[in-house]
Each structure stands twice: as structure tokens, then as C-alpha cells.
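DM from R.C. (forwarded with permission)

"hey, sorry to bug you on a friday — could you get me a structure for this? deadline for the figure draft is monday and I only need the backbone to look sensible"
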Amino acid sequence: MLLLQLNNKFNPKLPQIATFFTLFFILLFASTNGQTVIDFGPEDTLQKYRQAKITLSPKEKGNISELKLTVLFTTTEMEKGVSGIASAAFPEDAGVLFFYFADGVRRFWMPDTYFDLDIIFLDEKFKVISIARNMPAHPGRKNIHSVAKTSPTFARHVLEIKSKSAIAKLISEGMTLPVQFPFPPQEIEPNIHHQK
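My reply, with the result:
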């Protein structure tokens, strides 16, 4: 994108090309029917493990009763997280689950983010330990010293969802989230070593 902007004075059609590619990628990431909100590419050997969901029980239902999760496993994908994803490409019924295999101190921050997040710290059984609510977006990577950060929290897993989503308001500390995987979670660990 930067190259297209720098060369704009040489070719007047480049802004239309840039607009086309921007719309293309928004549409690519926006479709979550059977897909994840993050594109891992065709070589992703963990693709079958990437989807999970949380369905709240009837008494806890709001306008959105099911949260579709994209599951992250490797250090590389966790470092990127939702950075660079446009708000329109991340539906309110979507979430990203950072799936760890051991407890540890977790601290998250918000560089290059385009929507506010609730960052939910979970134990190994997906019980909510604490919630960092309304973490403010920080578009781009300028003024990196002013990027919002969570407090360090000892946890197993971390869930990120849009702060303004209806389901965010239904999640509270102390509740256990009924995360449903299409596979036994322990099945994935041996496969992680094949990923970079």
C-alpha cells in the first residue's frame, strides 16, 4: 500500500487499484461462514483446529448467543493477534482465542488495532479470571509508547472480543465459558512443533 501511495504521481490509476485491493481484503476477511477472521494461508497445517465456539445457555442469551472463535496456537500468530484487521472485517459475533498449553503471566497490548477490545483472561477450564474492558484501539504503529496495555495477569488462555458486542456484556468474572472445540484440545499440541 505504501508503494502505491508513493508512486501515485506517476500513474493516476493507482488510487483505483489501491481501492480495489482494500475492498478485496475487507471482503476476504469479513466472511466468517466456515472460515476464521484471520487468514493463515493455504499452507496452514493447523487449519482444522482453528475454529471453536461459545454458546451461552438460554438464561444468558442476548442478541448474539454464539461467539465464533478463531484459535491461535503459535508464538508468531499470537504476536500479530488482531493487529491490522479492520473493524468491518471482525464481526461482533467473532472472537480470537489465544490457546496456551501452560499457565503463565499474560500481558496484552493494542498496536495497529482498529476497534476497542475486551481482553478476557481464562484458566485452563476457561473460567474467567479477569477482564480488561474497553481497551482502546490504536490504529497504526506511531506513538507506540501510548498504546494501551493490560495489567500482567497469571492465566492459561486469553480471549479477545469487540467491546461493543452484545456478548461482551454477558461475560463476567467467575463464570466458566463453555468453549466447544471440534477436536480434543490435547490433540493439537504435538502438531504445534511442525509450525514456525
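R.C.: lifesaver. The radius of gyration is 18 Å.
me: no worries. The chain has two domains: 1-30, 39-192.
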